[in-house]
Amino acid sequence: MEKATNNLPTVILVGQTPPPTTGQSVMIQVLLDGLKRHLRVEYVRMEFSGSVQEMGKFSFRKVSTLVSLIFQTRFLLRRYPDSVLYYPPAPPALIPLVRDIIFLCSVRSLAKAVIFHYHAYGMGGFLNNRKLLYRLARLAYGRADLSVVPTLSCAEEPEMFFPRRIEAVPYGRDLPFVNGIQEERNDGIYRILFVGILTEGKGIYDLVETVSRLVVLGVRIEVRCVGVWQSSEEKKSVEGMVERNNLQGIIQFCGHLEGDDLWTEYRWADVLFFPTHYLFETQGMVVVEAMAFSLPVVASNWRGPCDVVKDGETGILCDAGCIGDYVDALVRLYKNSGLRKEMGSAGQQHYQSSFTEEKYIRSWFDLICELKKTAT
Predict the structure, then answer these.
(1) Is the C or the N end of the chain the one with fewer CB within 10 Å?
(2) Can you give the residue ranges of the Glycosyl transferase family domain (predicted)?
(3) CA atoms within 13 A of residue 10's CA, in its CB half-sphere
């Protein structure tokens, strides 16, 4: 890949990196670090939310943050008049959308070219029957030079804003997998891992129900759930569900983990269970992480996982919300350790060929350079 020269574009990258740690913030960090190795990148950090619980909520501090963000971005766009503006559109919620409308209408006219990177899904449904809001949103998002989505099943998301070009660039991240094979264990315990925000849309209620049925079937099971709670109300509700089903010694909530602590959980597990039906889902980076660690995946046949998991080869896809299908798939893998190894090995090969950081950054570099040529 080429090194940065004066002939290559400057990228003004606006986005939020951890904290809080979400799939979007992590992948923006990966993109930022990767592009910096090859292009001039000026980074403007969005600092609206310090935690998952703050996301999408109004505060007066966020108003001052927005004003500062506008001034910083306008300064850089004037300093680099031929630059490319990168921006991640908001998830489908009123406050983040209004923020985007104000910000983009204040800055995007100064950019030579604009890239919108859609990390969240669902804006079409949100704007349906909101005609005034849709008109304002079109002023902000309309006719981008390039709209990028993580998977093909999300490609329709930016269509309502008539971008000049839509491309799918799957997330890629370098991960410390070990030898491509999980450690052999003979204690008869089936270890299931869930990673994600602990909320109904990510399937946490479906997980508890599925585990309850597995226990009734006599499966010796341990489950670890890694992630933060979306709300205290959901935490109380799920913990009550766990208690009613006598699963306290089976399901462990580990909280937020990252780095070596998170990788240890992938090495611990026999299978990743990801029963998402999350409105905003676009890829599900945890599925990619699991494959890097040679884990078979049982996931919902939902936008994102359906693009990543090769059904019957690297894992098993089930109809979203179908507890019986989840149970059948997990029991099938429980009874067949050879199939777990086979799917895990195929998953790691799929990761190596499709989801590395090098492939991710290479795709972005090529798109940005192409955009620069067409914009001049």
Answers:
(1) C
(2) 184-349
(3) 14
